[in-house]
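Standup notes
- DV: blocked on the single-chain target, sequence here:
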Amino acid sequence: MALGHRFHVDQDGHSVTVQFLGASGRFEVLVDGKVVAYGSGRRAGGAVTAELPGDPPRPVRVIVSNPGEMGGVPFCVLETGGMRYLMPQVPLGGAGEGPARPGPYRPVRRLRRSLRRLLRRLGGRSR
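- DV (later): unblocked, structure below
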């Protein structure tokens, strides 16, 4: 499974997220920001069981597909209370954020750093 896949759905007042952990296909399930289950998700996909907090806790099952079946992108299904909900893929990063912008260019800082390095080198040779 590819890097950078995250799926999210709000279910019964709780935030449920599935985050892939790398090219190995492992994934973790987070409920309200806390990790509650891990899955191997190897080539055949995977399924894990977790609980939504409450009194009593409600069991949920997360099913992850084989990415080869869907054109290289996995999909996730949340199963709870006899119903299945397709979890939409969400971009990594905060809501409404675009790509990270570089900081301001600081030529004076760069010049000072270069001068310090040069002076250190010259100072070491005179000894």
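- Follow-up: Helices lie at 107-125.
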